[in-house]
Amino acid sequence: MAKQSRSLVGGVAASTGAARGIGRATAQARVAAGMQVAIGDVDLAVARATAEQLGADVVALPLDVTRRESVREFVDEAERRLGPLDVFVNNAGIMPLGRFLDESDDSTARQVDINVHGVIHGMKEVLPRFQARGRGHLVNIASSAGKGGYAGAATYCGTKHFVVGLSEAVRAELRGTGIDLSCVMPGVVNTELTTGVPSARGVKTVEPADVAAAIVEALREPRFDVFVPKAIGPIGAVMGLLPRRGREAVAHALKADTLLASADLEQRRDYELRAARSAPALEEHASR
Fold first, then answer.
1. Who is most buried in 102, 115, 168, 268, counting CB within 10 A?
2. What is the CATH number of domain 12-276?
3. Which pairs with CB-CB distance under 8 Å and at least 24 residues apart come from 45-48?
4. Domain ranges of the chain
5. Confidence of residue 239 (pLDDT cuts 50, 70, 90)
6. Is 271 a catalytic residue?
7. Using one digit for the tens of pLDDT, what is the confidence trace for 27-67?
């Protein structure tokens, strides 16, 4: 018997790093599904503009995911304004590109602070609330880079491997609690984060709305693995059956092994500058 799709109407959701990109698109999709949404971002001016554009069911709140107390304040205020959370999306992330040995210690620390600690902080703040209610859906935005290593984005890949592994382990710990956990693994998404990155062979570049639609689908019919586009899932499964030389040969044939390393850094200048300012002072925030 097929599972009945859940209604999202009247639900409450919160997202980190949601002023732009995937976060903004996901907020818009959840509003369209009948939810109220709190979007948190360190760039509060952009978050407020986004909230105004998306309508009365969206509130914008300040958020610095690198500080757990800021995440706690964000969740507290979201629940005070909208009611108990049904959904929480860990979306904030940055992706500076370049050779690993050329990467500054500051850049490494920023990526770990936002992509790793930011996710941990969100999970540690929201999961106890979900447990107390016996329900809730946590969504962690990882990446297809969390399933493989790509030259030109070594630290980023490492942070996304962490998110995938953490999500899998915590999902096992939550089994039987009534709490759902989804791990979203997009390929190349047409956002500022992927500016200058060429298209991959064999896997199409997707739009933020495509990722948002996949997230809403997973909220309605819960599942852990959310690949966008869906073709990434079976491709990864087949690649996993090959010996390392075979996997590397296929990746080379598809030019996946050089995709991020061949990004046009001149085109990425504005994004890279904004990402460089995203921590620890967090003057601006690089939303996915």
1. 115
2. 3.40.50.720
3. 46/19, 46/20, 47/18, 47/19
4. 12-276
5. confident
6. no
7. 999 999 999 999 999 999 999 999 999 999 999 999 999 99
